[in-house]
Write a structure and sequence with these properties.
- By secondary structure, the chain is mainly α.
- It has a domain at about 50-90.
- Helix content is about 40%, strand content about 5%.
- The protein contains three helices and two strands.
- The protein has a two-stranded antiparallel sheet.
- A hairpin with a 6-residue loop joins β1 and β2.
- α2 packs across α3 (about 75-90).
- The longest helix is centred in the last third of the chain and has 15 residues, at about 75-90.
- The chain is elongated.
- It starts with a strand and ends with a helix.
- The model has no long low-confidence stretch (mean pLDDT about 75).
Amino acid sequence: MGTTRIDKNTSAPKTARSTNSTKKTTAKPLEKTTVKALEMTAVERREPAPSLNYQTIAQRAYEIFIQRGRANGQDLEDWLRAERELNQRH
């Protein structure tokens, strides 16, 4: 049940209603960047070729890591370089 309050404009008591009603929501339109990302091809998104799997990329990234003298902190760069090299081969 609602509570009674005084409206400042009319000084008449008003009953506050419960706000438990169900609102219908509509989906927001996609942003331009989202639409563009959906339209991009795998090459444009720079995804690895389907023939490249995680293990293949990881092995090449590890080889790059070894060639660099096992210096830590460049794992992402090693991974991306491995992907680039392997994509060029395929």
